[in-house]
Amino acid sequence: MTNHYIDFRNADRIMIIGSNAAENHPVSFKWITEAMSRGAKLISVDPRLTRSSAKAHIYAPIRSGTDIAFIGGMIKWVIDDIEKNPGNYNMEYVKEYTNAALIVSSDFKLPGDAGQNGLFSGFNPATRAYDKATWQYSDKTAPETDPTLKDPNCVFQLAKKHYSRYTLEKVSEITGCPTDKLEEVYRTYAESGAKGKAGTILYAMGTTQHTYGSQNIRSYSVLQLLLANMGVAGGGINALRGTSNVQGSTDMCLLWHILPGYLAVPNENDVDVDAYLARARPAKVNPKGLSADNSVNWWGNYKKYLMSLLAAWYGADAKDNPDETFNRLPKVKVGKNYSHIAMMDAIGEGAIEGLWCWGQNPASGGPNSNGARKSLDNLKWLVAADIWWTETALFWKRPEVDSSKIQTEVILLPAAASYEKEGSISNSGRWAQWRWKAVEAPGQGKADLEIMTLVMKKIKELYEADTAAPNREAITRLTWDYEDHPEADDIAKEINGYDLKTGKLMASFVALQDDGTTSSGNWLYCAQYPEEGKNLCQRRDTRDTSLNQIGLYSNWSWCWPVNRRIIYNRASVDLDGNPWDSEHPVVNWNPGTSAWVGDVIDGGGSPINLAAAGAKNFPFIMKNDGVGHIFGGWTMAEGPFPEAYEPWESPIENPMSPQQDNPCSYISQWMNEKGTVDKFPYVCTTYRCTEHWQTGVMTRSLPWLVELQPEMYVELGEDLAAHKGIKAGDTVKVESARGEIKGVAVVTKRFQPLQVNGKTVHHVGVPWHWGYAGMSTGDSGNILTPNIGDANTTIPEYKTFLCNIEKV
Q1: Eight-state DSSP code of residue 145
Q2: Fewer CB atoms < 10 Å away: N or C end of the chain?
Q3: Are 441 and 485 within 8 A, CB to CB?
Q4: Which tens digit of pLDDT belongs to each residue from 306-331?
Q5: In terms of C-beta distances under 8 Å and separation of at least 24 residues, what long-range contacts does 177-184 make, across chains too?
Q6: pLDDT in tens, 401-423
Q7: Could you write out the DSSP letters of every residue in 116-136?
Q8: Distance separating alpha carbons of residues 713 and 720, to the nearest angstrom
Q9: Coil, helix or strand for 550?
């Protein structure tokens, strides 16, 4: 999140899209309800009328997978209204704090331009990738600007041209949402663009789990920047994370393409530190002609964070032999995908012999469960660390399989549940909060940290004994000097980091060095433990000391970075340092003390109008050009503006352009048959319920939760049920090109048929909490889902695919 849960109460407009917060994030809804009691309006955008929708002032039904068209129509509405009624918007923010005024290369072409056929300039169909040479500013180091926003090659005019195709009629044709409802949503949410007002967008897996999920979020970013909603109280783009520590696990390098702190993973061409930095560290760009004149480009500190990470892992080696130490890190092959989908493909193809699943259940949790389970058959060994038997640990004796033909050695390590161990979690709002151990784990159950330490010590012992092992120094030189029963508090100190010259804990990442003389296991968390005895994640001060008590609660736990509760808060003030919203100030410049008060200021320095030449800092310090990106440029795989494409499996041809689906999406070749609308005429989507959690490992063995939600079910609308002769309580079969499942029919008014591109489209909804392990068993909805991934992250397209449904 850019903001945090409590901050939702400061919003004037709240749009929940791709999320059912009332059921899946009920604590967040507490603050949404408080905002509504203060006069905020709630908008729910969803294919299904959820419990969140039931509380909304406006419910807008859309076909699953059409967010870009829906938001694109709103962006067009806002741009048109800006030109007609500029006084209704914060134009100073748009011109000075975003790249709306920056001039783009004249060689850049939009998907709607003549001959582009739905593609941006530079696409190579042979590689299914773009050459992004034209996706640049006209000057790459000091781009020109047009503060009047009239130049045809400025970002604002390019956005206007791009989104001119997203008319109310076209958006309705794609989404199925009526034009009057679209206009009501657009007008209502656009009211948050006035000075002193704020709107927030809340999303979850309904946004991300598409072949263009990243671009869904980008579309929200474009909208929020045009409405001056980034960096302000009650604003931002706020991901409602799927579990309690998804944020923390991502920060710490859960994903294959990053190191802790979102540093790029090294690739095969990074022969030394300098080569790595030349590729990964962004060059500073200073736009000309705006009031600010200095891009802070915080990622310019890349080397400090890399070297401090290496020092945390390898001690003095980082200082004495930096390149040798760097080259101990594993390196990916350029252009090769190492995501979950690609990994399961590789296992199926025999390229991977062993798999360790740590609180992970790919036999039910990943896409195309039948394909994943078949892949696991090829493993020589599998280790599962979990609190119960999982479908993955039991894959070798799943229903309808001859176990004698599976030769995999399976080891289950009993783990400890969250309340049986100590440590921290980082919630959706980036608040790192300490959890204390409540009870002992039963039997032989051990905390993850203890299991990791015992295993790592044995691995080090084996590598020490094998002098011929390749790259053995990556293991033997690794700093791993914990006791057999390590304390989580000690790990928190290592993550924070030390001044290796004095042995003292680092007070902040600002003091990290690029020569290996400081350490930090994750630069973003440097400041959470600034001195001995001060684990700031343990703080529980319930007093709100923020300006006007806007709900920052800065002494409750700790928040990265440097306890800043709202990211990009420098954009919440004008050029003189005065808040746009005096009622909800995040920060404020105090001329008497010449200092910022309120939240921890983003980037330091004086307000733009009061700073010296060369020190007038742009507000978006993590962007190398210092401004918010309406034009995304080089950062995205499939285009600098979001463009509407159809899902991989769709009931219609793309009404927007000849390009049917995302040209850069990741397509698996392992047991991944594609369905067609003649065999599978309905749109299927997956989601969760309140009573069960993820694949059900932690809930389907609890009798009280099984009693509340005892078996797998399938939701469908009344019209579709009548057409198929299905009644509530019937057992139904849902089938896709990948497999079939059975469940109890729930016939509901919550799914209504939509008129899309001249045809009627019905949705079918399935949860994915069930499997063949545990007290309550049933089919997983992921048996149906395709092995297809987002072009930027490869997150699977769980949320929209084709199916058929029949009464059993």
Answers
A1: B
A2: C
A3: no
A4: 999 999 999 999 999 999 999 999 99
A5: 177/60, 177/61, 177/62, 177/70, 177/754, 181/58, 181/60, 181/61, 182/60, 182/70, 182/73, 183/77, 184/58
A6: 999 999 999 999 999 999 999 99
A7: TTT--TTEETTTTEE--TTSS
A8: 16
A9: coil
